[in-house]
Amino acid sequence: MTTILLILFLLVTLALIGVILVQRSEGGGLGIGGSSGGGMGSIMGGRGTANLLTRTTAILGTLFFVLALTLALLDRGTALNRSILDAPPASAPTAPALPTVPTN
Can you give the pLDDT at residue 42? Predict the structure, then answer.
């Protein structure tokens, strides 16, 4: 179950990054077009594209937070509740004893 949610979380994250990068920014950035509407101008006007991308960003953002909270709640009980200060100090490995040669 956690693996499926984690894969879905990754896909939503990548889609959210892509949608945010495609949006038209104030400085131009990686926006999909100028005032003429770019490649999607024939399908939708600039305003319709902006509304669609805004809605898509809101939906993907909500999905991102819901999945993040769900994964955090599912993983809550699996962690060990110990401090690293509670662990005994790591002992230094001891060198093997050298063989002794008997003297006669």
Answer: 47
Tokens in use for 58? Answer: 């809101």
What is this structure's pTM? 0.56
CA distances for 84 relative to 15, 72, 87, angstroms: 38, 22, 6
3-state DSSP call for residue 28? strand
Expressed in angstroms, the distance from the first to the final Cα of the chain is 71
- Assigned token pair, 22: 């495609």
CB 1 within 8 A of CB 73: no
Range of the domain at 65: 2-24+42-75
Confirm whether 87 is domain-assigned. no
Average pLDDT, the chain: 76
The structure tokens listed for 78 are 């699996």
Q: Which of 1, 3, 8 is nearest to 67 (CA)?
A: 8
Rg of the chain on CA atoms, in Å: 28
